[in-house]
Design goal:
alpha/beta, Rossmann fold, five-stranded parallel β-sheet, 12% strand
Length: 423
């Protein structure tokens, strides 16, 4: 029997819904997060804010699942009953704990609510109404158990059948790359913001996780947006001239079969002309990543050599300045020693002066480097970033070099006798 035949009757759909949710109950929370592009919890918090239950309100959460909405209502002080058609869901909800009053969880059918009329001030449901075998009957039952002036709040998402409505709806399912999101909104959270592409407004519902950029594909992911293909074809490219199609396989072994099928479909659509190319992105990414590592290894050697040279020059500079200071201040050193300063105190004085000199140089270098990176970042495809860890290492290295190269002048100053210094 086909799926369409199994859910053709209300009783068949009821059995199917109970069976499918019993199967996925233990993974239900994860699945809702994935299907909502990670927005599930934020949507539920918004629903609770809209409900704004009074501390003594009576609330009913239908299709309660594992009880997220029920627990959130209870945390606001409401007396909550959670009802679900699936026993395993209720079992998982009862094993949870939350702040506030503990909800009461029941197994039941939304089409035959086991409550007297006008029992609740608020009725909520998350992703529940779309699975009801008879929506009109469910609404009637909800209306019956709602007290006068009560409210019903339903959280759901679906794919509208109407093409125009579907395009507008899917426009909200837009995910931006991490780099693009930061550029557009100055580092603030872009989720919930609107952007306009080719005159079409989209609402951002997610941001891709930041990652290393070692190929053009990674760069486009970080600096682009992801929108449903139907939205792209309906609203941005009505001529349907796709130049790139990505397919995710369930298993690697299906590569040849799927490739042959796609080539066959393309030849059929292009009058038997084979003008497409199949690329295994996994292999390409592995190859690109290896090339990236090879290039980074070469650049690491070059930059390390350059850094070592610069550090050596800087160290010699500190040594030269401190030796000049030692020569110019011999009388001062002798006078301090004659007045009772110990060798150790003179040594510490010269080392501190070397550290201050290095710190001033590091500070000037930090300001100049940050300014250069900010000014030139837009000129590079991957941008220029000042790494705080690298900055900390640079400061530590500069101060360590100051101690090393300032040690010789400090020792000479500490060993200088007052009589010789003041001649």
């Amino acid at each position: 029997m086909s799926l369409r035949e199994r859910i053709a009757t209300p009783d068949g759909k009821r059995r199917f819904v109970r069976a499918i949710f019993s199967t996925i109950a233990d993974r239900y929370d994860f699945i809702t997060v994935v299907l909502s592009y990670g927005q599930d919890r934020r949507w539920k918090r918004r629903l609770i804010d809209l409900a704004a239950p009074r501390p003594d309100a009576r609330a009913l959460d239908l299709a309660t699942g594992t009880g997220d909405i029920a627990f959130a209502l209870a945390a606001r002080g409401a007396g909550v009953v959670g009802l679900d058609i699936t026993f395993r869901m209720i079992e998982l909800a009862r094993n949870k704990s939350g702040a506030g009053r503990t909800p009461r969880f029941l197994v039941g059918d939304m089409l035959a609510l086991p409550f007297p009329s006008s029992s609740f001030d608020v009725v909520t449901t998350g992703y529940g109404l779309r699975n009801v075998p008879n929506l009109a009957a469910a609404i009637d039952e909800i209306e019956r158990v709602l007290a006068p002036g009560g409210q019903l709040l339903s959280l759901d998402f679906n794919r509208p059948a109407n093409r125009v409505v579907r395009s507008a709806y899917l426009a909200y399912l837009t995910v931006v790359g991490a780099t693009l999101g930061s550029k557009l909104f100055g580092g603030s959270d872009p989720v919930g913001r609107d952007i306009t592409v080719e005159g079409v407004r989209f609402r951002i519902v997610g941001v891709q996780a930041p990652g290393q950029i070692f190929s053009d594909e990674n760069y486009y992911d970080a600096n682009g947006i992801l929108i449903p293909i139907e939205t792209f074809m309906d609203r941005i490219d009505p001529d349907h001239k796709l130049v790139h199609v990505a397919v995710k396989l369930r298993a690697k072994r299906e590569m040849n079969e799927v490739s042959a099928m796609m080539i066959g479909r393309a030849k059929q659509a292009h009058h038997n002309i084979e003008d497409i190319e199949i690329t295994d992105l996994e292999s390409e990414l592995a190859r690109s990543y290896q090339n990236f590592l090879d290039q980074m290894r070469g650049w690491t050697i070059v930059l390390m050599s350059l850094a070592a040279t610069v550090l050596l020059v800087g160290g010699v500079g500190v040594l030269s300045v401190m030796l000049i200071s030692f020569s110019d201040r011999r009388y001062e050193i002798g006078l301090r020693k004659a007045m009772g300063a110990s060798d150790h105190e003179v040594l510490i004085q010269f080392l501190l002066e070397a550290l201050v000199l290095a710190a001033v140089g590091a500070f000037v270098g930090t300001i100049a480097g940050g300014f250069v990176c900010t000014a030139l970042s837009s000129k590079f495809p991957y941008g220029l970033v000042v790494n705080p860890v690298g900055l900390l290492i640079a400061w530590a290295t500069a101060l360590a070099l100051a101690l090393v190269f300032g040690m010789y002048p400090a020792i000479r100053a500490s060993r200088l006798s007052p009589m010789e210094a003041m001649r």
